Amino acid sequence: VTVGKSFTPQVDISETEKAFELSFAVPGIKKNEIKIDLNEGQLVVSGERKFEEKKEEKNFHSVETRYGSFNRSFQLPDNINADKVEAKYEDGLLNIVIPKDEKKTQKKTIAIK
Fold it and tell me: Quick check: 20 and 76 in contact, CB under 8 A?
């Protein structure tokens, strides 16, 4: 079995009126093997999916699951509330909700002179 050193998990990104939402497909990775950092407007999500070959003398004919480490980074807009970011891991999906800062999202119409 050839196991890669890295892989790129699929990520769905959506936006609501109040937040940005990122959903990472990371089945087979334990919650404590995922790290989320937010630094100066950049969100970095990293982790590792380890290939554990059991001693049951299995001969794998096909391994389509990607193994190894991953690191995804996203530059966030200025209108977020970094103090209220939430992350939840359930059923192989890591969901991160990044609320918008209402003070920074207020729209203003500019009069033309």
Answer: yes
Q: Rounded distance, CA 52 to CA 30, Å?
A: 13
pLDDT for the residue 5: 81
**Looking at residue 102, what is its pLDDT?**
79
**pLDDT mean for each 10 residues of the chain (113 residues):** 74 95 94 94 92 67 76 94 95 96 74 88
User: What pLDDT does 54 receive?
Assistant: 62
CATH number of 11-105: 2.60.40.790
82 alpha carbon, distance to own chain's centre: 15
The candidate with the shortest Cα–Cα distance to 45, out of 57, 35, 60, is 35
Q: What is the DSSP secondary-structure string of 45-109?
A: EEEEE-----SS----S---S--EEEEEEEEPPTTB-GGG-EEEEETTEEEEEEEB-HHHH---P
Enumerate residues 6+ apart whose C-beta is below 8 A from 62. none
Spatial distance between the Cα atoms of 99 and 77, rounded to a whole number of angstroms: 11
